[in-house]
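BUG-421 | component: ligand-complex export | severity: low

The export step for magnesium ion jobs runs without errors, but we want the raw record kept on the ticket for reference. Input record follows.
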Amino acid sequence: MAISRRKFIEMAAAAGGLSGLSGCGSQRHSESVSTVSGITVEALERAAQEPVLQCRDITSPVIIESIQLLRKGNDYLVHVRSQDGAEGIAIPNSRVGNLYPIFNNRVAPYFIGKDARDLEEHLWGVYRFGSNYKLQGVALWCCVAWIEFAILDLLGRISNRSIARLLGGVVREKVPFYVASGHRDNSPQEEVEWFQGVIEKTGARAIKFRAGGRMSRNADSRPGRTEGLIRLSRQVLGDEIDIHADANSSYDPPRAIEIGKMLEDINAVYFEEPCPFDHLEDTKRVTEALTIPVAGGEQEFSQRRFRWTILNHGVDIVQPDLQYYGGLIRSKRVARMAALVGMPTTVHISGGFGFVYMLHFAACTPDIGRYQEFKQGMDRIASWFDPPLTSQAGALSIPTGPGVGIRDISALLKGATSFPA
Ligand SMILES: [Mg+2]
């Protein structure tokens, strides 16, 4: 425990998490770090329950008249319209292709006729609606997230504020990113060469590679690939590139600790999801045994399990996925609990457009850790924003326009058709 507590404090300090935090106050934050073991469930719960959405200055009701799921080319779109004709959109991840019956039949109907300004309360209402809680899981919460994104866009357009401003205010203007690889089937040499190309193209100063075989009970994707990649990545990319590794639930604790120590030897930034994602005790064992920060939570959908993980220091960095976990507001609640113990919240993202929601989250969340994930694909969408999104010196700009920041949603909606047809 002594090791992990020291690691915790060092990490929070390195991330700038001990000072200058809007909304939580540096003194309170420092105290909470030094007394992490004294934090109570009640204190975490109170932090989670504090209002997130700031839209009470919208004085007239914003009654939702329609919610449509659309498809245009390879993109899915969610279009929400109020009775007054205001509009908002969301661009969900590709899981729509499997989840649309839940979206259309179980989630969207709840919101019709509701006041969008009460969105925060609706996250509870939709969970109860039609006993939706019996579907509790990533499949349900993705659908809620997509509607939440669209409603936040709508409220932002009405009040002329970005989503980040609706969710507490902007605390940074640039977001340093790492580029993540999805590969597991190539050799260490091929993977490092791929990263060299991506670093050249994007200006990234940090990367994340895959370790292990993904949910593989210790088996590597290719014999020796992980050890080779750990060694070669530092050797070839040099000390100026920060390295992250993601095991996608590959290991039991003994093997995770072995791999984690190799990552410590190359001074990696963090080790993500070392053990099966829902094995909270095993993940905690690994967190306690290593000095490298352990990150996790992308598959989590329960606020109470995040609360357990934070209270029990089950990881060093929490990673709610903005779509799997049910949206920005629920993820902000996790971040508020984590902030009480000095733990960064580095959200996981899914889907090509998902990084835009990450940018809004990062813009309004004090302690996000050192780097956020970026999977590329910005070229296609940068000009949708005004000013266009940019990537410079390994950092992304943040959308500043109303809502999600897309300048002309009618252009985006043109040619979109109902899904399913
Ligand atoms: Mg991951």
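Assignee comment: Attached the raw record above. The mean pLDDT is 92.
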